[in-house]
Amino acid sequence: ASATMRSTSHQHRLPPPAKDDINFQSLPWNLNLPDQHYYLHLVTTPMEGWTNLHYDPTTDGGVLTSKRTDGTLESLHHYSQNPIRLTPATTSLNYGTTIWEGLACRRSPTSEKALVFRPQKNYARFVQGAHAMCLPPPSYELFMRGLQLVVQNNIHLLPPSPDIDPKTGVPLGGAKLYVRPMLMGSGQQLGLHSSPQVSLVYFVSPTGSYFQGNAMGGLKLHLERRKSRAARGGLGSVKCCGNYAVTMRPLLDAKKLGFDDNLYLDLDTYRESSLQEAILQELSAANIFLVLKTGEIVTPSLKRGTILPGVTRDSVLELAKAFTDELQPVVAKSVGVSSSDIAVTVSERDVRVKDLLDAVEVFITGTAAEIVPVQSIATSPSPKDELDGGEEESLSVTFPHGQSLPGGPVTTKLLEMLREVMAEKRVCDATKDWLCDLYESPAVFRKSNMK
Question: Which UniProt keywords are given for this protein, alphabetically ordered (predicted)?
Answer without folding.
Answer: Amino-acid biosynthesis, Aminotransferase, Branched-chain amino acid biosynthesis, Pyridoxal phosphate, Transferase
